[in-house]
Design goal:
Radius of gyration: 25 Å
Bound molecules: pyridoxal-5'-phosphate
Helix content: 40-55%
Number of strands: 20
Largest sheet: 10 strands, mixed
Strand content: 5-15%
Distance between the termini: 52 Å
Mean pLDDT: 95
Oligomer: single chain
Shape: globular
CATH superfamily of the largest domain: Glycogen Phosphorylase B
Number of helices: 28
Low-confidence stretches: none
């Protein structure tokens, strides 16, 4: 028995379980309520569960062999030959360091707020699958990002839950004498210390800095308390820790890094630390060192709107960097400040732009979709003599978001290693109608049960009456067309666009012949009152009886909720203001689960869309001649028409066995054409071929 427990523990400490449905099933079978109580955190689960009960259950439910089988598969996975080894065997481990302010890896690790973090997490996961010699660097936030709940008035409220690192799948990095390894960064008038947590994701290590150590003042401890929390001064401290501290962390751990990948501008102070180190090492000037480092920095930008960029005011930069510039970089503060204010040539500008720092210091720059690449090239308008902005379209880590039912179908049809087979998506798209449809129905039902469970416990916690709770257990229709809309409630994403013409929407929602239901979910940034107002609006529609209970708002959008939604929805809706969605990734998550996309031609969908496998919403580009309201009306109308004339009739067009043959044809085409390409498997290969193996 002890051996089984050891195997379970070893499996739990390697986050490759986050893309293993069998691992989740085993914990659910041991005790589902306890698994949910532990926030699907296997370490907390194993640390707190009664061991005689655990052993008894493993015995009684015959779980021992399944655990051992998982363990053997895991050992095979971490030692197998990989894409990198096969293609780049002549390259001796050029280690790539990947810096990001957030990482979305597992539901229990509250180290992300949204798409940027999930992308970083998926980058780690696919780097592991492909065997890329890569190491991740980030921050260990004590309170992470907030938990959203909707209060009695329909308003978003925020709760900050503490991360107990000792009971999470991570280890404190210690030296030979078991003392925590620490790095320090200088902040005016003092030194801030940070300890290091190590997470293992398949073959990849991710290191996170944590300032909650005894040597620090209370204020400095709080540098790593909340992701995107605090004021701009806290933010600059966080970014100093990430960029400068992150470089020191890699040095202390003995890594020889060949290329530095900056995921968004938050870590751009790293560029200065690299230069400072180079100057010292080679006894060269700032500009000589900058030139050397430039060729091994990679910058990925994620926002097509100038307002979305991280910017610091001059006084703040002066406070934190005057001495650093003079002593470490041998620059005057004015010269230093220019580095964050480069290509606009406006000397009166008093803002220091982190994206400009990154751009100015990186030979390799990319946007995250083809369209975003174009928009970024226009926006930054780089001098012709330097390297230009490329694009590498985002992807998702397929197995992380794949439902257990779809996966079971793929395993039963093609074997356990299905995902590594050549032409697998063609093969999957050729599966029989009945099988694809059965998996689809199971996926939808599982989502609806999840909504019912969540809903009734939400209501119970609000002290609702018994009848209300009972009602909640019966919401939604297992066979109705289910449309999902879930993402951050940033204004440009227009979470409420579908309600633009309420009467027309009502007609769609109350048509008894073609039932349709919408599930919404998403958080607004705590300071974004407009985003919060949109959430309150949707919650009000949810409680509006005239809408037939066909609108659901699911609180606290996080990875586990996202997984259920992308697995269960038939159609995934996305209606941002074009071209503000750099890529968008949630729509990619539905593909392998048999969901279809219905979206504005923005971000990834602008390059992916074809009528055989999805729908577009016609849009007008922003211009002076069209007001925002006119634009919204035009796009909402296009949305209603497509729903009424195409999507609903197609879903309810059934053959004699009640199978929507034409709909399934679309699912086939979607899987065949999109599933392989819009994955981080393809994306990380592209980073490797274009950037990682070309640094000098
Ligand atoms: C995928 C994902 C996102 C990003 O969704 P977009 O469509 O790119 O906005 C945000 N949050 C969570 C939890 C996700 O899983």
């Amino acid at each position: 028995m002890q051996e089984i427990l050891n195997q379970l523990k070893e499996l739990s400490y390697n986050l490759s379980w986050t893309w293993n449905n069998e691992f989740y099933s085993v914990f659910e079978e041991i005790n589902k309520d306890f698994w949910i109580w532990s926030d699907r955190n296997p370490i907390k689960f194993l640390d707190t569960i009664n061991h005689s009960y655990l052993f008894e259950t493993l015995e009684k439910k015959n779980l021992k062999d399944r655990i051992t089988e998982m363990y053997i598969d895991y050992k095979k996975y971490v030692s197998a030959d990989t894409f990198f080894k096969e293609n780049y065997s002549d390259i001796v481990s050029p280690t790539i360091a990947y810096f990001s302010a957030e990482f979305g890896i597992a539901n229990c690790l509250k180290l992300y707020s949204g798409g940027l973090g999930v992308l970083s997490g998926d980058h780690m996961k696919s780097s592991s699958d492909l065997g890329i010699p890569l190491v991740g660097v980030g921050l260990a936030y004590l309170y992470g990002y907030f938990r959203q709940y909707i209060d009695k008035n329909g308003k978003q409220a925020e709760l900050y839950e503490k991360n107990y690192f000792e009971h999470l799948p991570m280890h404190l990095v210690t030296d030979d004498h078991y003392r925590p390894v620490k790095i320090s960064v200088e902040i005016p008038g003092r030194v801030v210390k940070a300890q290091i947590w190590k997470l293992v994701i398949g073959r990849i290590n991710l290191f996170l800095l944590d300032t909650f150590v005894d040597e620090n003042t209370v204020d400095d401890k709080r540098i790593t308390d909340i992701l995107y929390g605090g004021d701009t001064e806290k933010r600059i401290q966080q970014e100093i820790l990430l960029g400068i501290g992150g470089k020191k962390l890699l040095d202390v751990l003995g890594y020889t890094i060949k290329a530095f990948h900056l995921n968004e501008g938050h870590s751009a102070f790293l560029c200065f630390q690299r230069i400072a180190d180079k100057m010292k090492e080679l006894h060269i000037s700032y500009h000589e060192a900058k030139k050397i480092c430039y060729y091994s920095n990679i910058f990925t930008t994620h926002t097509p709107v100038p307002a979305g960029i991280d910017i610091f005011e001059r006084w703040l930069v002066e406070k934190y960097f005057k001495t650093y510039a003079e002593e470490k970089l041998k620059l005057s503060f004015d010269e230093f400040f220019e580095e964050g204010d480069l290509y606009n040539g406006d000397s009166s500008n008093s803002h220091f732009n982190m994206a400009e720092v990154a751009i100015n210091n990186s030979n390799f720059i990319n946007g995250v979709s083809r369209l975003h690449g174009e928009v970024s090239r226009k926006m930054w308008n780089l001098p012709a003599e330097r390297s230009q902005i490329d694009s590498i379209t985002n992807g998702i880590h397929t197995k992380t978001f794949l439902s257990k039912y779809s996966e079971r179908l793929y395993i039963n049809s093609f074997g356990k290693d299905w995902i590594n087979q050549d032409g697998i998506w063609d093969k999957i798209s050729a599966l029989p109608d009945e099988d694809l449809w059965k998996a689809r129905n199971r996926n939808r039902r599982r989502l609806i049960n999840f909504v019912r469970d969540t809903f009734s416990s939400e209501l119970q916690s609000l002290g609702a009456e018994y009848e209300k709770v009972k009602e909640a257990e019966e919401v939604l229709d297992e066979n109705a067309l289910t449309i999902g809309f879930a993402r951050r409630f940033a204004t440009y994403k227009r979470g409420n666009l579908i309600f633009k013409d309420l009467e027309r929407l009502k007609k769609i929602l109350t048509n008894p012949k073609m039932p349709v239901q919408f599930i919404f979910s998403g958080k607004a940034h705590p300071k974004d009152n407009e985003g919060k107002a949109i959430i309150a609006e949707i919650v009000a529609y949810m409680n509006d009886n005239s809408l037939n209970h066909k609108i659901i708002f699911l609180e606290n959008y996080e990875l586990e909720v996202a997984k259920r939604l992308v697995q269960g929805c038939d159609v995934w809706l996305n209606n941002p203001r074009r071209p503000q969605e750099a890529s968008g990734t949630s729509g990619m998550k539905v593909i392998a689960n048999g969901g279809l996309n219905f979206s504005i031609l923005d971000g990834w969908w602008a390059e992916a869309y074809a009528p055989e496998f999805g729908w577009k919403i016609d849009s007008v580009d922003e211009s002076d001649s069209v007001s925002l309201d006119e634009k919204d009306w035009f796009e909402a109308n296009s949305m209603y028409t497509t729903l009424e004339k195409e999507i609903l009739p197609l879903f309810y067009l059934r053959d004699a066995h009640n199978i929507p043959v034409e709909w399934i044809k679309k699912i086939r085409a979607s899987i065949k054409n999109l599933a392989g390409y819009f994955s981080t498997e393809r994306m990380v290969q592209e980073y490797t071929e274009k950037f990682y193996t070309r640094v000098s």
